[in-house]
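Input sequence (83 aa), recorded before submission:
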Amino acid sequence: MRINFRTQIIVTMVLVIVGFISSLWFAKDMYYNLAWAFTGIVFFINPVYPINITNLEQEKAKKGIRIAGMILVFIGLTNGFGV
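Predicted structure, token format:
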């Protein structure tokens, strides 16, 4: 079962917020970084996009979402957001 764009955005937003709160609670920025990395992995595995993007080709849109997902993973693993 594939989830739609809206559901995936809501789930990943909740994940990032939980990671942020965990980072504040435990005083370690690792949780926030891992939340962003996991968000990127989710978009890499399940590249969804809004339905109203009909002018783009589906394969190009999926490829762009996957590239953006890998950028999120890279940023999440290399940057210290809480530093």
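Checked by second reader. The CA atoms of residues 9 and 38 lie 13 Å apart.
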